[in-house]
Every structure is written in C-alpha cells, then in structure tokens.
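Input for the complex:
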Amino acid sequence: MQRLGSAWAGLGVGLLLMLHACQPAAPPVSPRADERPPQASLPEARYQVLQPTLEQQDEQGNTLWKLKAQALEGQSAGEQAEGTLVAVSGWLYRKGKPVLQISARYARAHSATREVEAWGEVKATSSVTRAQLQAERILWKAREDRIIATGAVTLRWGDLVLQDERLTMDTALQRAWGGE
Amino acid sequence: MLRGLIATALATLLIAGWEGGLAQTQPQRNANPAIQFGKTRITGHVRYIAESQPKTRTYRLKLFRGKQQPVRIEAPDQYLVIEANYLQAQFGYSEQNEPILQQAIADQGVSVRYARPKPFSRLDARARKATYNAEQSMLTLEGEVYLEAEDEFYKTVARNHERVVVYLEEESQRLEAYAIERDGIPRGEIIITPKEQRPK
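Predicted:
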C-alpha cells in the first residue's frame, strides 16, 4: 500500500512534466544557475494503468497519434520513468488526419522526439492507400513522416507484396524504400 | 478521466528514459528480399523504391542490383524474364482485371528471355538497355544488341545492331533491326535460317 502511495506521488510529478511537454513550443530559455528549479525525484515504484487512452498533439493542436491499450505498465526511479503500453491499437496522424491504423502487442511513445515505437505482431492499415503492413517492429517518426519497419516485413498494396527484413515507408504507406 | 490523465502523464514522462532503440539497431538483412505481383516476381535487388498510385491502381518500382546478382523480373504469364543492373517496372491491371507487368525498363548488362509455348516463340537477347511495353506487345533493345530468336519456321540470329524492336503479337511477330555503323558502313548482321518442316 505504501508502494502504491509512492506510485501516485510519482504519477503526480509525471503529470506535471507531461503537461509541460504538451504545451506549444516556446523558445528555449536557459535558467540562471541560481534560478534552477529543484530536480524532480521520482519514487522507486511500478505502475499499472488499465485501459488507458493516450494521444499527443503538435503546436497547432493537430493530433499526432492516438493510442489505446489494455494496460500501461510503467516504473519510475530517480529522475526517470518509463512505461510500455500493452495490447495497443490506435491511429497515427498526418496533418491532423488519421492515416494509419495500427495494432501491436506493445508500444511506447516519445513525446519530445514525436516518435512511436511498436513491437510484437505489428499490423497497420493505411486509410489512404488501403495498404497493409506487417512487421515485428516499427518506429514511426512523425517529424520525418517515416516508418521504419523491421523483422519479417510484409507490405501489401493490393496484389503487390513487398517482403524484406527492413523497409522504410511514409506514414500513409504510399511509398517504400528498401535497402536504406 | 483521472486514469487517462495519469496514463498520459506516465507515458510522456517515462518515455524520457527511452532512447529510441529501433533506430539504432542494425537488424540482419534478409539475403533474399522479394517482390511479387500476381505471378510476376522480382528478386536480386538490394536497394529499391516503390510507389503506389491508388487512383490508377498502378505500382512503380525502381530497383538496383546487389553485389552477387542482377535484378531479375520473371513474368511467367507474359513469358518474360529480364535481368539487369537497374530496373524500372510498372505494374497494373489488364482489361480483364488481371495483375500484369505493364512496362519495364532495364538498363546496363541487360539480358532478356521470352519463351512462349503456343504459338511457339523463343527469344534470347543481350543489350545495354531494354524497354518492354505490354500494351503494345513490344520489346525494344538498344546498345550492342545480340539476339537469337526462333519460331515454328525460322531461326534468327542478329548481332551488331544499335537498336532492335521486337513485336511480340501472336499474329504478327516480327523484328526491326537498326545496324551499328562504323565509318558510315553498317555492321549489322542478321542470319535467318528456315527450319526443316516435318510433314504433319
């Protein structure tokens, strides 16, 4: 129970940091040495949140991604916390529109770099091209409009099937680059 | 609601500890990446770019050979095999809605084989460049063309041609050959040998 209490405290700190991360970007300002805020120290704890829905937006308020999962399992210690979404499904967006529906056993998102990583029987379907992607793992880079898929990758465009161990695509799965 | 917020908080926070593992990993590359469209298959490529055109239901590819082998496209429904260092292909659908190789442009170290069982027609050619157009049933070979062709009645060998156009229609199969010229003198050679006709 005590551990759970620590967990809530950690989540509180996390929430503050997260909200900060989702604000529109402002010019970075280096704090003066004597103004440096105290470092957040998270309790050593493990968390599980059931059926969470997560999303991230850009500076203009456009949704970048929206994921729901059966569970979010996380842990924190010191200044870091990390977590993994379990049994995930959701959408990746381009210019505020949902273009790729994905599902995977696990996923993580990095709000600062605007990347989403998913692994374990990853499946994705493009609403633009109806293309279907399967892979062991994908890394989506929203800023670059690129998906890097690895491990038994299969991309289907109707009757056209591309198979490789590594394939780079745009978010809508309209273009693919092999051997990069 | 609170749960959702907390989850979001955790996710964003947590993520601070993640270093984007996949981008840094170097997965083992499958030695045999493959591309298939209907019965048409492409192998031997290492680097390639593919693009889907959903409105026209066409797919374009640019492929580069690997160190060990050339890019190879096999279209058995169209009796065609092409190998080259560089290949552009466009796939689409026929009027009967069957997946076909619509166009191919092969460049550098090109070899082409066409083998149709009925009516019998066989062609083996080497050239610097080959362009295949399914709609026009036409194969254009360019640059130091060497060709051996055969049908039910004739065997043909053509060498030293700058350009050879092969019309592949079943009813009007024919060649047009443009010889290489040196000092204004055509060097091209075509040898046509009638085949012995067996009484039916």
